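Sat 14:20. Reprocessing the chain from the morning session after the first attempt stalled halfway. Input below, unchanged.
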Amino acid sequence: MGRIAGKVPDTDDFTLAVVGTGFLDSGLTLQRFENSSSGASLLLGHSRNGTIGSSTILQDGDELGKIRFYADDGTNMDHHGGEIKVIIDGTPGTNDIPSSMIFGTASNGASSATERWRITSDGHFRAATNGNGIDFSATEGSGASSSILSDYEEGTFVPTLSVSTIGSLSIDSTSDTCSYVKIGNLVTCIGSIGINGSGGSGTLRLTNFPFAMNTGLTEEAELSAVTCNIYNTATDASGLINAEMSNVSGDATLLIRDGGGKTTGVQSFGNHLGASTVIRFSAIYRTS
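Finished this time. Tokens:
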């Protein structure tokens, strides 16, 4: 085969190359005629041994094989805009080949594909870059500001008890159960904490929530929904318990008041805490 202008790199050096000017002379078809459930196959393989027929085990990160997609950019066909490849993902062994499948595309201005998503060896579909997500814009409503689902996370956290005068108050680690779910930039937290000690007074806050609040929101615009129940207080509250998520220099803080509204509530619930007090809450707030 002679050299062919405007082609994928090294085409004339491959053992097999199919180059044509139309559908029929530039395609490859594999077909299987058999009374079975199996179809035709395209097999890609890789060994670390340089001798054909000999075996040397692959290493973590080694490619098993890849498919690349090239485009003529008006000058040549030297750059690929898409790629699908499979790599070893873990420690391989006899009859054990943990692997991931990687999907890549080229962004505007790039000359090669970059990993976007991968199917991991444990079966999860994972974005390669923070902020990438699933685009639901095809079904978005007229008021939508974003249709990208870019994050999901769940876990546990340990809040910190903050009281103006702490006394001997502390959180009972044996009765501390707090968890969270983050979908996009919306965080939902639920928790139950027990209190030890006494002698506290003043403002009561729970801090150390799993994500900072959106610092672009003013206090009046903070998106938060809170329910809070407190049991076994050392002294009775003077009014209805009022609880809200508060943005303190970007830190998500649960502020608990002794009655009153947002601007007039008495910030002295620390006075009512004592041994055996239990605080149970749920809170929803927006992070950046």
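The longest strand covers residues 170-183.
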